[in-house]
UniProtKB/TrEMBL annotation:
It comes from Moraxella caprae. The lineage of its organism: Bacteria, Pseudomonadati, Pseudomonadota, Gammaproteobacteria, Moraxellales. Residues 399-519 are annotated as: Domain IV, binds dsDNA. This is Chromosomal replication initiator protein DnaA. It comes from the Bacteria. InterPro entries: AAA+_ATPase, Chromosome_initiator_DnaA, Chromosome_initiator_DnaA-like, Chromosome_initiator_DnaA_CS, DnaA_C, DnaA_dom, DnaA_N_dom, DnaA_N_sf. Belongs to the DnaA family. Its main location: cytoplasm. Plays an essential role in the initiation and regulation of chromosomal replication. ATP-DnaA binds to the origin of replication (oriC) to initiate formation of the DNA replication initiation complex once per cell cycle. Binds the DnaA box (a 9 base pair repeat at the origin) and separates the double-stranded (ds)DNA. Forms a right-handed helical filament on oriC DNA; dsDNA binds to the exterior of the filament while single-stranded (ss)DNA is stabiized in the filament's interior. Residues 213-349 form the AAA+ ATPase domain. ATP binds at G224, G226, K227, T228.
Length: 519
């Protein structure tokens, strides 16, 4: 099997020739009875070209909602990068009881058929069955082109004069998410420091006399807590002030930098000059741009670092960990990261999760009763993306059954997510995580050693199992070497006392709790 580099474009020569075909059409349970495909890449299933083109061009609300529910489910089976690159761009349409997914070209069709089709079919079948949706299969097709005759009938548009308005981003910069604004961000104790710092950064942007002593803002926290949202919110304010912004995800940064280092687009010096035109540079997931993954790319980042930490320029970096815990960077690089303003974002508590769900529901135009918000906040991980995914699932189910959002509907809509999380957070997994956290072996935790460096982690693990699972004291004791239930009760009481008396114990407990809640 030929290996494809992370940075190579997936071109037809990478794919087996026997799976290449314009307008490939494959369907659930219908692989032996596929509608004929004409030379325009549209299946001949009784739907005319004009009708099909119309279906694709208009916004099919029902199909879009159903497909968004499918994507929410597929998040648990595929990497976020795969979803973004191959599946999110598909245009869904319901036609003849089929979910038709339109892709931009044959490359997408072949890739999806080879790598993701079976998973898509399974999710579609499950959601269709659970939601009463009449979907008999899934078809993959190339997006049909608008016939030339249609274009000819339209009056030629007058060419717009070139705008003299200053551009707000450079060519290589990725587009910003419109909904990621300060107004849509839910502020709470867990993100207040980062939120306030970003708000302060955007004050007096057009005032040349205003002083900003901080050039580097280093935002860190686990995935799905709002780091990208905050950075986009700052970028929107910069653009509204007429300032130039350059935003990169780690993948885009690797792509454009490697292309420049290979001599493309005028080379690295040319890319450096273009990026340095910006007033604000934002780089997401900076912890991945290290010497191990790409030493020359990492060095280019440090060159940019020097340019954007002087004068009126600003630099925002985001990571899943603080600078002190970043690996495979030169010490001099880490010291420069630590020289900026470090802003931690912690997982939201139950109350804040409810606020996030209510805010997202309002933006979606749906009413989420308080009891439903409480149930979702209590049973979903403290991850904004997963909360939003669960909310989209609830909304889709409500629209499919044509009813109001009730606690019963919510329980049914997200039961698979709750069950999956329950399977991940069990006594054995908690025990193993605690052992890893404290640097002891699982054998020691279930053994008879009573040394403090073993007994304390054992007690911590027992207390966490008691809080996060429904296991009884005797059941917990069995997981820890068959200990008596009174030993487990004593461990839980001891950890409760120590958390109130020693800040280090409380810190360890909360760190372990946050890690386990993301399972």
């Amino acid at each position: 099997m030929q290996n494809i580099s992370l940075f190579d474009e997936v071109m037809p020569e990478h794919l087996p020739s026997d799976k290449v075909g314009v307008g490939m059409d494959v369907s659930v349970g219908q692989k032996n009875d596929v509608p004929a495909v004409d030379d325009k890449g549209v299946a001949d299933n009784g739907v005319g070209d004009d009708d099909m083109i119309g279906d694709v061009q208009k916004h099919d609300v029902d199909a879009e909602l159903f497909w968004q529910s499918c994507l929410s489910e597929l998040k648990h089976e595929l990497k976020e990068g795969e979803l973004n690159q191959w599946l999110r761009s598909l245009k869904p349409v319901f036609a003849d009881e089929m979910l038709v997914l339109f892709a931009i070209n044959d490359v997408f069709i072949r890739r999806i058929e080879t790598h993701y089709y079976d998973k898509i079919c399974a999710v579609v079948a499950r959601l269709a069955d659970g939601g009463g949706q009449d979907v008999s299969g899934v078809a993959l097709r190339v997006m049909p082109l608008v016939p030339k005759s249609d274009k000819a009938d339209k009056a030629p548009k007058k060419q717009k004069p070139k705008s003299s308005k200053k551009p707000t981003s450079i060519e290589e910069s990725q587009p910003l998410e419109e909904r990621f604004t300060f107004e849509n961000f839910v502020k709470g104790k867990s993100n207040a420091l980062a939120y306030n710092a970003c708000q302060e950064l955007t004050k007096n942007l057009t005032d040349k006399a205003a002083k900003h002593d901080t050039h580097l803002y280093f935002i860190y926290g686990s995935s799905g807590l709002g780091k990208t949202h905050l950075m986009h919110a700052v970028a929107h304010r910069y653009e509204r002030a007429g300032l130039l912004v350059c935003y990169f995800s780690k993948d885009q940064f690797f792509k454009v930098t490697i292309n420049a280092l290979r001599g493309g687009e005028g080379g690295a010096d040319s890319l450096l000059r273009r990026i340095c035109q910006a007033d604000l540079l934002i780089v997401d997931d900076v912890h991945m741009i290290n010497n191990k993954n790409g030493p020359k790319v990492s060095q280019f980042l440090m060159t940019l670092f020097g340019e954007f930490t002087k004068g009126d320029k600003r630099l925002i970096l985001a990571s899943d960990r603080p600078p002190s815990q970043m690996q495979d960077f030169d010490t001099r690089f880490l010291s420069r990261f630590e020289g900026g303003l470090s802003l931690a974002i912690e997982p939201p508590d139950i109350e804040m999760r409810m606020q996030i769900l209510q805010k997202k529901a309002t933006l979606l135009g749906m009413e989420l009763p308080k009891d439903c918000a409480i149930f979702m906040a209590q049973n979903m991980p403290p991850d904004v993306r997963r909360l939003e995914g669960a909310l989209n699932q609830v909304r889709a189910n409500a629209l499919l059954v044509g009813g109001e959002v009730t606690l019963s509907l919510v329980r049914h809509a997200i039961k698979d997510r709750i069950e999956a999380r329950a399977r991940a957070v069990n006594a054995e997994n908690i025990r193993d995580l605690v052992a890893e956290y404290y640097g002891v072996s699982v054998k020691d935790l279930i053994g008879k050693k009573r040394a403090r460096n073993i007994a304390r982690p054992r007690q911590m693990a027992m207390a966490l199992v008691r809080e996060l699972t429904q296991d009884s004291f005797p059941e917990i004791g069995q997981v820890f070497g068959g200990r008596d239930h009174t030993t487990v009760m004593h461990a839980c009481e001891k950890i409760s006392e120590l958390r109130a008396e020693e800040s280090s114990v409380e810190k360890d407990y909360q760190a372990l709790l946050a890690t386990l809640e993301f399972a």
